[in-house]
Specification:
single chain, 2 strands, 194 residues, two-stranded parallel ribbon, mainly alpha
Length: 194
């Protein structure tokens, strides 16, 4: 009987947006509409939004044991429910994916991207702002000071030298912060590399 209770969060529910602009994930055979049974990933695992990793793992294991398809061979949705449970765990235990989900409501895919087709500019902007930190003028200035002569610059020089067959004009076009006065320094760096 307890196993049946543990299964309930998985039956019929689908993750919902929990913040304006988020994405609802429709599961196979379901329409992507605003139904009453929509649940967040946290709801599906019966944990709070502030749950730590240990709590999420514990909730996942409890539900996984109850929902495993081998325990329900006659339930055609058992495999789908189990896969949905695994997806919840994967998102909530991955710091980056969880942050994106918490901030946008988008359930990231394997590559970290959700289904963004048909989204408004504002929704896309919110999604990408959650993925990437804001670059400030100070960040650019700091990189401009650190990059010349750095290991990163040497790796870039080597890559572009090979890519452009040693054509230094092309190499210098692709090296960040390379001005006319830097060309001699760049040539010396390339000479040391080859």
């Amino acid at each position: 009987e307890q196993a049946g209770e543990a299964e309930k969060p998985m039956e019929g529910g689908k993750p919902k947006q929990h913040k304006k602009g988020g994405r609802k994930e429709a599961h196979p055979g379901e329409e992507d509409g605003g139904g009453k049974d929509e649940k967040t990933l946290y709801d599906l695992l019966n944990v709070s939004k502030t749950a730590d990793t240990k709590t999420i793992k514990k909730a996942y294991h409890k539900l996984a044991l109850a929902c495993h398809p081998d325990k329900h061979p006659n339930d055609p949705k058992a495999k789908e429910n189990f896969q949905q449970l695994q997806r919840c765990k994967d998102v909530l235990l991955d710091e980056t994916k969880r942050k994106v989900y918490d901030e946008t409501g988008v359930i990231p895919g394997e590559d970290g991207m959700g289904d963004l087709s048909g989204k408004s500019f504002e929704e896309l902007y919110e999604y990408y702002r959650a993925l990437y930190q804001t670059v400030t003028a100070d960040d650019v200035k700091e990189w401009e000071e650190k990059y010349p002569g750095s290991k990163e610059e040497k790796e870039d020089l080597k890559e572009f030298y090979m890519k452009y067959g040693g054509n230094m004009r092309d190499v210098c076009q692709f090296i960040p912060f390379c001005e006319e006065e830097d060309r001699y320094r760049i040539k010396e760096a390339v000479d040391k590399l080859i």
